[in-house]
Each structure stands twice: as structure tokens, then as C-alpha cells.
Amino acid sequence: MEISAADQQEYDLALQMIEHLGFSPMPRATHRGVFGDTTLKMSKQRGNPNWCQPQPPTPCSPVLSAFELQTRKLGLSPDEFVTSEPLKEWARKNKDQKFVPSHLLQAWGFTS
After folding, report:
1. Residue 67 in contact with residue 101, Cβ under 8 Å?
2. 8 A C-beta contact, residue 26 and residue 44
3. pLDDT recorded at residue 20
4. Distance between CA atoms of 109 and 73, rounded to whole angstroms?
């Protein structure tokens, strides 16, 4: 089967467009198709080549709750939580949105 010059030119243009889109040539394979024997360009290798080599675990820092951040900001020790007026006021404002230990809510009379 003979390939017309126009068909060959259209095929070459299509291959150039594929290369332009980022599918650079890798190993070439011969393919017998509509336009005769042609050389196909294989797409980029995909996937993670290191999938079987696990990474060492990364240390993660503990996440503090808003209550813990507030107690650190106020410089309170656990013994001072119940007697702290600023912490009590913060808890009154934030008890429905933030975590506040239930024993403190009971001690302050915010729960029944």
C-alpha cells in the first residue's frame, strides 16, 4: 500500500504535535498500520519508580488544642486552671466552639 505525500505529511505533523504536548520519544517500536511501517514514539514512563522503597517516617509535632494554646498563652499550670478568671472567661465565650475539659466546665457551673 502506497502512502501519499499528503498523508505522510499529516502523519508527521500529528507526531510533532504529540511531541509538543510533552510525550517525548522513549524507546521506539515499529508498527505496521494504515500508513505502512512506521516508528511509534512511546509516552513517558509513568508511576513512582520508588514505590517499593518506603520512606522513613517523618517526625510530626503534636497538635495543640485551642484550650491548650490559651493556657500556655496565659502561662497557667494545671493546678491554676480552675482559679483563673481569664481562662474562665475564655471558656465561657468558646465552650460551644472549642474543646474545654468537662471537669472545668462543671467546676465553673457551665454545664448541668
Report:
1. yes
2. yes
3. 75
4. 24
